[in-house]
Amino acid sequence: MATIRKMRPDDLKQVEYVCRMTAGPTFQNDPVLGYRLARMFSTYYARECYDSSFVLVDDNDTVVGYILCEPNYKRFHKVFRKVDVPEIKKLDKKSGKQAWLFPIPYDIFGWKYPAHLHIDIMDEYQNQGYGAKLMDALFEELKARKVKGIMLQAHLSNEGAIRFYKRLGFKMLSTKLETATMAKNLR
Ligand SMILES: CC(C)(COP(=O)(O)OP(=O)(O)OC[C@H]1O[C@@H](n2cnc3c(N)ncnc32)[C@H](O)[C@@H]1OP(=O)(O)O)[C@@H](O)C(=O)NCCC(=O)NCCS
């Protein structure tokens, strides 16, 4: 049995762990690649967006899943590039370039879908309805904040996740560079 609560900044290490463990064997087995991935997909959100993000925790309050959400694409562009890109660049040049490009899809569609999310759940907690519950918690939060739409990106090969998003009302916006960009109106 797991429960959902708002994220706290001190959840960062556990969120990073879930990020690595749900990203497949390459990231699970290589600490350098795993750290790079988590640095890109977790650190900013734990620092800037914990109040609009939720974690799924077990009976010991250990994080077993999360939905991370930045409600404001303009803030993401500004702060991620100023604070996070220089740090990621120190890891290596290629990662720095990837990080610099990271806000672009959110800039393109942000006028209509200002928020974006990342969701991941540990294997043993998948397919039990927790993903849909995390999404519901986030939709309620964003509606209360009067955010008009939300978007996400998924690798095109991740058919299960894409099916999951479609079932929750996300529509496909584009399928470029092996990436599905999907979005949902919240009004
Ligand atoms: C994608 C992901 C977030 C979905 O979360 P989830 O908790 O597994 O999703 P849900 O349980 O709400 O729904 C998934 C499936 O379980 C089924 N399901 C829902 N509630 C259920 C329940 N109580 N009992 C059994 N099955 C259930 C749904 O019908 C759905 O089936 P389908 O997609 O095969 O048609 C999760 O599987 C995950 O983290 N995957 C690995 C990482 C990943 O791919 N993240 C997304 C990156 S873009």
What is the overall shape?
globular
The assigned CATH architecture is: 3-Layer(aba) Sandwich
Q: Please indicate the count of domains.
A: 1
Helix-strand makeup class: alpha+beta
Strand order of the largest sheet: 1-2-3-4-5-7-6
Low-confidence stretches: none
Order of helices and strands: EHHHHEEHHHEHEHEE
Main beta sheet: strand number and arrangement? 7 strands, mixed
Q: What compounds are bound to the protein?
A: coenzyme A
Question: Overall mean pLDDT score?
Answer: 97
Question: What share of the residues does DSSP label as strand, in percent?
Answer: 15-25%
Q: Indicate the CATH topology.
A: Aminopeptidase
Distance N terminus to C terminus? 32 Å
Q: How many helical elements?
A: 9
Describe this structure in words.
- This protein is of the alpha+beta class.
- The chain has one domain: Aminopeptidase, CATH 3.40.630.30.
- The chain has helices at 12-21, 25-29, 31-41, 43-48, 73-91, 93-101, 104-109, 130-144, 159-167; strands at 3-6, 54-57, 63-70, 115-121, 149-155, 171-176, 179-185.
- A seven-stranded mixed β-sheet has the order 1-2-3-4-5-7-6.
- α1 (12-21) packs across α3 and α5 runs antiparallel to α6.
- The longest helix is centred in the middle third of the chain and has 19 residues, at 73-91.
- The model has no long low-confidence stretch (mean pLDDT 97).
- The protein binds coenzyme A.
